[in-house]
């Protein structure tokens, strides 16, 4: 016990010395602990802690697979490294290759083909959003007493008020509605002349917060305010969707200090942004401890898709990038950190997908999943916490019927089972199949960032034989997708094509409407926000129909 006490004293002393932690920053005076702290407006010892855990889901934006310290990056991420080392690292964890698809699958537990969002992202000018008939994770958590808060990037549509975060299950929302924007001004131009402000508090533009604060820091301050004002004895769901490290590449000057030696300007800026994000997550963790949440909390960290090399991100040694179905686009940095984990300090290599968080978190929250909700996710808590086998054996990465068709794709190439012109990707056990046009397929090693500008000289490429539209890989044996086995194992190809065909039979029509000129922020006070309103003519016609019905009923009564 003496040795433990000495080590604890030394660790606190070192933290005080290097400025990562202080009694003031923790808000704990001498003799005060998390256990003795009371909630806002509470008497000491009033009530008891909830058996339902606090859930903190942190989603980074465009963080590359290599861009974390424990994956060998030159970018320092001490907070992420420590949290992951003390928790469970997810090293067979998959998301979607772009923003909207990953967010929709996280919040519904459903594949894109089952929400109609299987093509691209939701654009700012599109009258589109996550379909309103989909039950969301915060709605289910509210049913069992959770307070639900979202801070950060929404990107699930906003063309009508019913699509807004506060209408989809969140008690409060502070953040942006679009996919990207300036980190300081929160201004976004979708095209020349189509520009507007994009920072919201609940359902209104947050003009009062337009103080030029860098979004990563601003969002962290908001999280700290939420934690300070909430009662830690009541269950909390906090969804923090940081804008970082998505372009535009912007960061406060002090975070460049350790990265002056990086010649590539995009990589240098990206490194500074990630350093700021790492510090922000440290501050969130300290706030969880300061206000008494930590011991009963589950912290989940995930990137929403792979990195974009042209914007500084690195997925090495994986192939491809954001926006593709190669591993570099869909295999993500992810971990779970929690005092409630049984196997702390471990690595999970079981198959996990972003849809799995929906049933997993609802079950942990002691909620109920309706039988009529046909989920694509699985409860994987025992897989993560106890090291058991994953219930998941396959992942439909996607089927996109309106993506640019592969010129040489055909039903014949798909053995009459599948049209290989269609972009699709599926994983079944060790096998992964891709068809159509899978996207940018280079391997981008660290040397590619050695020069001042973007340089593809060091990239590795494979020139496919003309007409190729099917690829097969054993991902367990070949995680870098270097050896195509489609010609060697045609029976496996056929088996996976049949599985694709089965999934496709359950798909709903694609929702990807043309842009609506009424979305222009100039028509909405200079703000990106809901613009869709019922046609006034329709309203008038409905009113006139109603009036005519009333007249007819009156005449009938008089006749009687």
From TrEMBL:
Which SUPFAM superfamilies does this entry report, sorted A to Z? Alkaline phosphatase-like (SSF53649)
Basic and acidic residues bias spans: 532-545
State the name under which the record lists this protein: ARSJ Arylsulfatase
The cofactors required by this protein are: Ca(2+)
Tell me the superkingdom of the source. Eukaryota
**Would the keyword Transcription regulation turn up in this protein's UniProt record?**
no
Which UniProt keywords are given for this protein, alphabetically ordered? Answer: Calcium, Glycoprotein, Hydrolase, Metal-binding
Source species taxonomy: Eukaryota, Metazoa, Chordata, Craniata, Vertebrata
Keyword Lyase set for record: no
Please provide, alphabetically and separated by semicolons, the GO molecular function terms listed in this UniProt record: metal ion binding; sulfuric ester hydrolase activity
Segments of skewed composition (Basic residues): 546-560
Gene3D superfamilies from the entry?
A: 3.30.1120.10, Alkaline Phosphatase, subunit A
> Which family does this protein fall into?
Belongs to the sulfatase family.
**Which residue intervals make up region (Disordered)?**
31-50, 509-560
Name of the gene encoding the protein in the UniProt record: Arsj
Boundaries of each Sulfatase N-terminal domain copy? 53-365
Transmembrane intervals: none
